[in-house]
Amino acid sequence: MLIAASAFTGCGYDDFDPYVPVPDGTVVPNTTIGFIRSVCGDGVYNVTDDIIIGGYVTADDRSGNIYRSFFIEDGTGAAEIRAGMYSLHNVYRRGRYVSVRLRGLAVTLTDGTLRVGIPPSEGYPGVEYIDSWAVAADYLFPGEKFAEPEPSALSVAQLSAGDCGRLVRFEYMKYTDGTLDGEEETGDEDVGDEGEDLPSVDGPGDVEENTSVTWAYPRDATGTVPGAAYRLFEDLQGNRVAVYTSGYATFAGNYVPVWRVSLTGILGYGVTDAGEMYILRLRDEADAQLQVD
User: Fold this and answer.
1) Looking at beta carbons, which pairs linking 126-135 to residues 24 or more positions away fall under 8 Å?
2) Could you give the CA distance from residue 234 to residue 158 in angstroms, rounded to a whole number?
3) CA gyration radius for the chain?
4) How far is CA 217 from CA 93, 146, 158, 257, in A?
5) What residue ranges of the chain have pLDDT lower than 50?
6) What residue spans of the chain are helical by DSSP H?
7) Backbone conformation region of residue 123, classed left if phi is above 0, alpha if psi is from -120 to 50, else beta
């Protein structure tokens, strides 16, 4: 399953600049996320060259809807950094520039999303979580530069695999009656901190709610395991996208909006009960905003 990073250099891209820290804590990238995406075929690539990418954090784990990861973009593409720890937003928070030294890590394209993490153990199908602050310090370099992430305004009809992992926004989306319930969450990659008491979070006052449908299924008074859910939304042309919410998200028990909204989040692709489709993961409930004419 592992393919050596010589696959990168075999394409003639072997003149990577050395590791270069600068005074503000940033490590200067010597290639782009887009290039790394372009040389990833099927499988996992174990990086042995001193390759450095970087980008601004577009989404973190603050709300619990993203699990042990954060996402970065550099203008050429996006990547999920599988840092592995909890409360990553305390260091790799939204808007912060983070450089990633890939040597010693592995990269793979999973359902269109570029993932960066530890090389997998035998039999594991993808990259694994870094899972240690000490180890992360060898690879992840948060800088002092900040920039508010701006989502790319796209239509569902124009989406392509290259958009996966990016922060995107869809306009005038409406919840449909189709509902795709996820499985109960037991600590896999799509859940938050198991055992964490979820705070009570009110929905934004400008978004009306469907009082019969919640984003997902949080832990209730009986202590049941939270359950994820997919909620189908469609645009004015009837194109659909599934919105995924973890049962551990702070807004999991809040109601889905009734009227048309803009939806902002990290784009993915995968299999739902309605078939394969693009999937949006909101960063928090503020990513659903009422739209009126």
Assistant:
1) 126/44, 127/44, 127/82, 128/82, 128/84, 129/68, 129/69, 129/82, 129/83, 129/84, 130/82, 130/83, 130/84, 130/85, 130/105, 131/84, 131/85, 132/84, 132/85, 133/85
2) 14
3) 19
4) 26, 34, 31, 16
5) 1-21, 186-207
6) 6-9, 33-39, 133-136
7) left
Residues in Cβ contact with 87 at an 8 Å cutoff, skipping those fewer than 6 apart: 61
Write down the pLDDT at residue 201: 31
pLDDT for res 181: 55
Global pTM?
A: 0.83
**Three-class SS state of 156:** helix
Residue with tokens 């002092």: 144
Rounded CA gap, 129 and 136, in Å? Answer: 10
Q: Which 3-state string (H, E, C) describes 95-122?
A: CEEEEEECCCCEEEEECCEEEEEECCCC
276 DSSP β-pair partners: 271
Closest to 73 in 3D by CA, of 151, 170, 190, 171: 151
